[in-house]
Specification:
- The protein is of the alpha+beta class.
- The chain has one domain (2-83).
- 34% of the residues lie in helices and 35% in strands.
Length: 97
């Protein structure tokens, strides 16, 4: 998955926790040749961080990028898991006891 563009849409300062929470819109390409699609994620980063970590906006973009990658890998794993198995029927009697 490739993130083509990110934009911080809304940001809120969580004073009690010392964090900034933001809704970040991403334009992603799931695989080469695929049409770009939009995603929207809520991310949270520390409001104050060492200078080495970059600006607040950069940290929000980086956190959204990492979360999108994580969700993509989880979805790929789920799809691989269900495609390798034959359909399983749910038996409520067997599940309860």
């Amino acid at each position: 998955m490739k993130v083509l563009h990110t934009k911080v849409a809304q940001a809120y300062w969580e004073r009690d926790f010392g964090r900034v929470e933001a809704r970040v819109h991403l334009l992603v390409q799931e695989y080469p040749g695929a049409r770009p699609s939009g995603k929207s994620l809520m991310v949270s980063v520390p409001a104050k961080a060492p200078l080495a970590e970059g600006s607040l906006r950069d940290r929000l973009h980086q956190e959204a990028h990492q979360m999108a990658q994580l969700f993509h890998r989880a979805e790929e794993g789920y799809r691989a898991a269900i495609s390798d198995q034959s359909p399983v029927r749910f038996d409520p009697v067997a599940a309860s006891g």
